[in-house]
Fold each of these.
Amino acid sequence: MSDSTLSAFGLTAPPFSKEISDTDLWLPPSKEELVEELVDAVTARQSVVLTGEPGVGKTCVLRALRQRLPKERFRLTYCHNATLGRRDFYRQICLAVGLSPKATAVAVFYAITTEVEQLATARLHPVFVLDEAHLLHPEVLGHLHILLNYEWDARALLSIVLVGLPELEDRLSLGTHKPLLSRLHARLRLSSVSEEDSGAYLRHRLVLVWCAKELFARDAVALLHEASAGTHRDLDRLAGLTLREAGRKKRKQVEGELVREVLDRHARA
């Protein structure tokens, strides 16, 4: 967003940038409840599967989870490269937890399980967050339940949070993955936000850059919500485009007519 657009609306920074701290995240009540369910599950040493369509806020929920887990009680490890084979996948986890990756799959697996046991001795509960889990190699997905098995399945030393698109649930329901599915105690799904949530989100992002004005008229919010299908990722993009257009036309507010012009233009592009 140009300096001229920022100055036109008295903004201190681009309001819809991806660069936002965990403490400044905004979640609607429905997602707040889901984060609480995640925290409760991990606190109870359970494993979870979280699914949702692209852009509905899975990453925001994970960042909120990271913010709310006390570091003195939990060790959260985030892994996002889900296209690796089994050995390289476990090597990735080794690197993420600060271990030296080993040469063989057996050695890498042993190093991770040993680290998990040592963390339990130190009263730190490890949480492995596996993002884009719908892309996990079948060999990896079929092996994860073994990673959760400690002392003849009598102790819960590790929580795994599988995050992905809705087709992840279909993959887990296959017979070969039922041992893993049976160990996923909570099965959560993220849905799109409401129009009221979209309006509250836009106001929140503007307040973060010291703008207390209602820059988006009610009809503009309705159109932006519909065009973004209730996903914040698309809402950020479209709100930024319409705000830039309003600045170019020296408008003091984004109204529905202007939103329609921008949407039509980009539909033809």
Amino acid sequence: MYTIPIHPLLASGALQFAFDKATPEGKATIIVLFFLSLFSWSIILTKARQLYLSRKWAARFFTAYNATRDPLEVKRGNATFPAAPAFRLYSSGATELEYQLGKATGSAGRISNSAFDAVKVVLEEAAGAEAMRLEKGMIVLSTAVAGGPFIGLLGTVWGVMETFAGIARANAATLTAMAPGVAGALIATVVGLLVAIPAMFAYNFMVTSIRAITQELDGFAARYATQIEHTYVDNRDLEDKIVEALQRASRIKDADNSLAFRP
């Protein structure tokens, strides 16, 4: 009958033996690493889900947006893509654009360059906010990567120091006396590496993904601003605007005169 071989480390109970022989300081170090690992894995799982949904909903939003000509068409259609960072950026810009259009006093459906500057500021702020949202929690992973091995090493060095101090006090410098203490000290480094290695792979993967999404956001913000400028910004020369304002004032004056002379 075929049996699945068990790894010698697990079969011999080496980890359990080492933990039992660890000093109180070493066990405290392992507990700290355990909680750091919990925080690390919570960030890994949460961030992985966030990045997956961001890419999924962003693809849907870009499909819907690319199918339109008017930069406000998606918003006027009440379509929502809640997990897409680009959609939240788009919504912020569209809301500001509608506000500026409501304040506009020139050509119908057009805004001034100063009003367009306000829209661009909102887009830049939204892009920054989305980048911060994507990077939230990554400090925990970087701390696990950089600090996990050092915390484990601290526990190991402390445990070895305690072991040798105990051997010196007992005057029993034998392998049998040293081995349990050294094993108990080394488990702290093992646990530190077990915390840092998954965090390192996850951190590198997620940083690359976040960088790609933020670059996509910056590109979309620039394209969105250009489309707004082409569709809704009044880029006529100052002379044309003055002429239009004078003509409008003349029409208003003629209308007032006609009302004044009406019997």
Amino acid sequence: MILLISLGIILFLILLSIKQINQYERGVKFRLGKYVQILEPGWRIVWPIIEGYKKVDIRTKAVDVPDQEAITRDNVSARVNAVIYYKIRNSSKAILEVEDFYYAVSQLAQTTMRNVIGEISLDDLLSKRNEVADKIQKIIDKATDPWGVKVEAVELKDIILPEEMKRVIARQAEAERERRAIVIRADGEKEASKNISVAAEMLSSTTGGLHLRTLQTLSEISADKSNTIVFVTPLEILRAFEGKGVGELLSKITKDDRKK
């Protein structure tokens, strides 16, 4: 009878000592308060009273860093929130070196983000978000390495600026677009003036070229009946008159009129 009771007690203790470690977990085992080993996935024996263990989830975790209000190097207030992805690289260090690694990583991320933002200007913060995130990641990863934590990525989710600063940035962007439009328009006029100069040289060097161009322009304008055309005599016609003599031409016209 005593033997059966003893066997029952031993069987009960064995069943009570069986602990299951899932594939995505690791167990940190202690014996009499001292660290013994890392428990791998599966069924493991942890004797009650004298031994204990703590499970550590080694999957990648996402920590949402709440809005942090910081002042940039050029004295602009901005609210920034981010998300941090990390995983436990060494389970024993995560339990032995820090009390609550989840809380510690979150607090370290908040302070690091404020410090990094304070060292850069607003323009760099807006235009170089990836570089800022990489810098924050390296600082946090270095600080959490003694805890057995590996920071995989840091992403800046949103950058919130004051309404006054948004209006200033909008005016700056509008002025920049106007400047580009003026430069583009000036470049176009410059190119057009070059082409007009080349065309003028070609017309002046070609006999009757200017007259033909004038007739072509009149033909294009005459398509619209609502236009009033003021005809300007080309220089080629005047030069033709000069070749025959303007006086002789006028006297001839006068004689013909008298005969009529």
